[in-house]
Amino acid sequence: xxxxxxxxxxxxxxxxxxxxxxxxxxxxxxxxxxxxxxxxxxxxxxxxxxxxxxxxxxxxxxxxxxxxxxxxxxxxxxxxxxxxxxxxxxxxxxxxxxxxxxxxxxxxxxxxxxxxxxxxxxxxxxxxxxxxxxxxxxxxxxxxxxxxxxxxxxxxxxxxxxxxxxxxxxxxxxxxxxxxxxxxxxxxxxxxxxxxxxxxxxxxxxxxxxxxxxxxxxxxxxxxxxxxxxxxxxxxxxxxxxxxxxxxxxxxxxxxxxxxxxxxxxxxxxxxxxxxxxxxxxxxxxxxxxxxxxxxxxxxxxxxxxxxxxxxxxxxxxxxxxxxxxxxxxxxxxxxxxxxxxxxxxxxxxxxxxxxxxxxxxxxxxxxxxxxxxxxxxxxxxxxxxxxxxxxxxxxxxxxxxxxxxxxxxxxxxxxxxxxxxxxxxxxxxxxxxxxxxxxxxxxxxxxxxxxxxxxxxxxxxxxxxxxxxxxxxxxxxxxxxxxxxxxxxxxxxxxxxxxxxxxxxxxxxxxxxxxxxxxxxxxxxxxxxxxxxxxxxxxxxxxxxxxxxxxxxxxxxxxxxxxxxxxxxxxxxxxxxxxxxxxxxxxxxxxxxxxxxxxxxxxxxxxxxxxxxxxxxxxxxxxxxxxxxxxxxxxxxxxxxxxxxxxxxxxxxxxxxxxxxxxxxxxxxxxxxxxxxxxxxxxxxxxxxxxxxxxxxxxxxxxxxxxxxxxxxxxxxxxxxxxxxxxxxxxxxxxxxxxxxxxxxxxxxxxxxxxxxxxxxxxxx
Length: 766
Prior knowledge:
Blueprint: H1 2-27, E1 35-38, E2 42-44, H2 55-61, E3 65-66, E4 77-80, E5 84-89, E6 92-94, E7 97-99, E8 102-109, E9 112-119, E10 128-130, E11 134-138, E12 144-145, H3 156-166, H4 178-191, H5 201-210, H6 217-233, H7 236-246, E13 248-252, E14 255-258, H8 260-268, H9 277-285, H10 299-315, H11 321-329, H12 345-354, H13 361-366, E15 370-373, H14 377-397, E16 411-418, E17 423-428, E18 446-447, H15 453-461, E19 475-478, E20 483-485, E21 488-490, E22 501-504, H16 505-510, H17 514-524, H18 526-536, E23 554-555, H19 557-568, E24 572-574, E25 579-583, E26 589-592, E27 597-599, H20 603-619, E28 635-640, E29 646-652, E30 657-663, H21 674-677, H22 679-690, E31 704-709, E32 716-717, E33 725-730, E34 738-739, H23 755-765
């Protein structure tokens, strides 16, 4: 009696404990769903270079499948012809816009999309969108990916296919199917080995939720009792829905695919609701052995198993003979498997750091957020290749740079932004994320060298309550200089070790002359230069010392990019943007991008500096950007620090600003200037991004006057002036002297009467 009582008490306590485990899981958060990050949608429009955007490859990455010529083209398929592409675009939800499913024809003319028409109406369209590509996800330790579905999100034939092969009496049994257990035991005895399992869907769900995969009597007993408890507490619909979201269905690279929603995307590039009968049968077929029966591993075996499921569905009355026949003869065409983009992992880390604090890593790994980013998937891929291959090429030409220790190898970063909006379009924070997760674009601060010099020229060109310190007709003195500092005299030198005497403002920046720039900085003062840099977006500490003008400050590439973007956008400082929209698992928008701008520099000054930097790209230290035929407007600046430890290249076009940094994490000499180390990486990125033809122009704003001057004196060039060049001025700052009668009024005092006397006179004034 006592033994029975104790046995009953222990058993009861055990069952109560199991019940608590069941209710805690089912009444709480049943699934941890990784948050996904998506790239910006690709836009297709007439005039777009379809080869440049890799249209065919992009559609394949999105899961579109090429179909034979057919009159009835389902969503997610395309037909590619020599001058015509027909594609049935899938509908997709986006927080800021909803795109319907569209059957469209793209007419191609050479390398361009000539026109886009919608079928069957034939209406011409100005543009269409491809759905955003997934960049990656924030996985938990299990590295599982799932797309949650409800029973309303899946077709009935998918449920029927699963029940037909996995649990045909699911609707009637209490969680354990004694009839199936007996049948499986008999079949296994006849075969002499385990050929069939007797577990119901509920038992499979319990095993996946709570138990280990080991096969022992004790574990099977736990499984059976917990299955009965689940069925006792929850209805069949809830259990089936949980099963559809939990079941393991294969691998996408290192990621485990769980649930029919994610499996539909993996195998067929579509949502579960759009699965055909044959496709549903395939998903049901591989539940038994997702990797062994994968159509990517053994297509014939997968088809045989699919057909077995279809036979079971017909025999159980779940589909009719015609449906069975059509599905059985349907060819099995699966989507291309595309792993997450490895080159976007630095960007994914930046997104995680930038999200509001309430979205910590735990929430990102379990709450199923959808994060729509600003990243351009094509530009990101180009940036990654340009950086990796550029560094490898530099090592090949300079073997001393190469090391067998991955932690000490030559490093770099590249980051690009759309200056008008602040959207970060590409970002690669290092050579290999697997070796080092340190993001050199946003987390590293290194001496910037000569890329800081334009801020000095802005400080001198900007009118501040009066005449500017210089104009583009002015001259600077590049003779030896000594400035007293608390740590002793400072004597700047030029990179070439020479002094160049009197030089024009353009020549000083185009040749990146240190001494001439240091003299100019001494006139406008470090405090003023630092104030300009702060306005442009520099936030790191700036030492108020004479060497600041030559880039002695430690800054991050993302700061430099933002400052140059301010120049490129005409003096309007953008806030860097990486997220367009943040949506929760229920589709509610939690955060939407707000474009924030501030006018920090008058447009005239911004244009003058842009003009100077365009000269650097045409004739100066950055002229190498043109060596491979890159055409169109470019403004750029090189930067090489003392000892060639940090190599910088910053450049912008009317639509893009990009920064490249090259160096070692533990600073040591690279042994080459930035024109050799960083410039080729930038050049390749922009050439492939634009196809070699940069669109747009650097247009002068109102208030800029374009006149001809005498390049020898800076005076206005009139008829009879022997030499002349076009120059730009803010209204009210034109030279007061003219050629051939006089000299520039950029320097105060009486003008001499001959050119030979001019430079000596100017030297004294400077």
